[in-house]
């Protein structure tokens, strides 16, 4: 199994940037696709981005395409989400997850605790 811990969230002004990190423990990190999801108050969980086990394939939600970049460093057992040109609509709790590469949250087996991202206008 995999244990995941997110970090890097915080408060930022619109147009600013943040980089989220998700550190994994467990010997099989490189065997999993990784995804980022977010959930705003009163809304359902939303797919953000996913990356395959080797890092050569990525998928992004249309709402973040061109602004966010997902990457991974298997040597450090860490996945990142670089967020640029942030908008107030990006405000949410961001979760990283490990599992099968998909935009559907139920395809991911393991989840972090989440990190809050707040974008002020």
Give a quick summary of the entry.
It is built from no helices and 11 strands.
Structural classification: mainly beta
- Number of helix segments? 0
> What's the gyration radius in Å?
13 Å
Distance between the termini: 40 Å
* Mean residue pLDDT: 95
The beta-strand count equals 11
Along the chain, the helix and strand elements come as EEEEEEEEEEE
Unreliable spans are none
Please state the overall shape, judged from the principal axes of the Cα atoms. globular
Structure overview:
β5 and β6 form a beta hairpin. The chain is globular and about 40 Å long. It contains no helices and 11 strands. It has about 120 residues and is mainly β. Strands 2, 4, 5, 6, 9, 10 and 11 form a 7-stranded mixed beta sheet that branches. It has a 4-stranded antiparallel beta sheet with strand order 1-3-8-7, with no helix packed on it.
Give the key terms:
121 residues, mainly beta, seven-stranded mixed beta sheet, four-stranded antiparallel beta sheet
Set down the secondary structure blueprint:
Blueprint: E1 3-7, E2 10-13, E3 18-25, E4 33-39, E5 46-51, E6 58-60, E7 68-73, E8 78-83, E9 92-99, E10 108-111, E11 115-120
Parallel strand pairs: 2-11
Antiparallel strand pairs: 1-3, 3-8, 4-5, 4-9, 5-6, 7-8, 9-10, 9-11
């Amino acid at each position: 199994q995999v244990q995941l811990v997110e970090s890097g969230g915080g408060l930022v002004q619109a147009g600013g940037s943040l980089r989220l990190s998700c550190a994994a423990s467990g010997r099989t990190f490189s065997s999993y696709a990784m995804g980022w999801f977010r959930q705003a108050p009163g809304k359902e969980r939303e797919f953000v981005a996913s990356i395959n086990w080797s890092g050569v394939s990525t998928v992004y939600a249309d709402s973040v395409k061109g602004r966010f970049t997902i990457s991974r460093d298997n040597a450090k057992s860490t996945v990142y989400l670089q967020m640029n040109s942030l908008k107030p609509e990006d405000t949410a709790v961001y979760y990283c997850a490990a599992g099968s590469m998909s935009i559907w949250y139920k395809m991911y087996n393991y989840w972090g605790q989440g990190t809050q991202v707040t974008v002020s206008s």
